[in-house]
Known about the structure:
globular; 216 residues; Rossmann fold; single chain; 6 strands
Amino acid sequence: MVNWHQIETVLLDMDGTLLDLKFDNEFWQIIVPKAYAVKEGLTVEQAVEKLAPLFKQQEGLLNWYCLDYWTEQLGLNIAELKQQQHQDIQVLPYTRDFLLALHATGKRCVLVTNAHFDSLGLKMKKTGLIEFFDGVVSSHDLGYPKEHPEFWRLLQSIELFDNQTTLMVDDSLSVLEAADKHGIAHLVLITHPDSSLPVRNIEKYTAVKSLREISP
């Protein structure tokens, strides 16, 4: 699925690729609405109904991933809420085995995430995965989400990777499409980012259930 002889740089997403997306899905779909309901004196159902259009408006934009933005918009300390739930952050199966195998190859490995700094720091502290990366880039460093073409131009100006020898692994189809348009030659989509949900059937790009299937 991946010709590792052709790869020099590996760009890895975090949530849904290395870490179980169940944490984030439950956080935004359950934890935040409950906290917002208490704050506003609403039922949880009313809170969900009120929050849904606010979330929808920011999908695919940098604000969607910004904890500071949602703290201001909702009047909740989102970073603190995440900290309170940190015990639920889990590494996806085979993540550590993949990273160990990749590290042994000596190829440059960069964490490329839309996660806000507070979330990124919390998750790296909880999982200890930071040791496997030669570089870490958040979309908040660059001012554009990974879905935006400018993100990839700026990322390449920092990392200086060769499109033809670079592999990007992500669970987001829209992110991989943006990477594809930029010219990154090797793209892999994770089809089971949330352990509590069924495996997705996606045929575009190389699609794998877990990192085990593409381990060096």
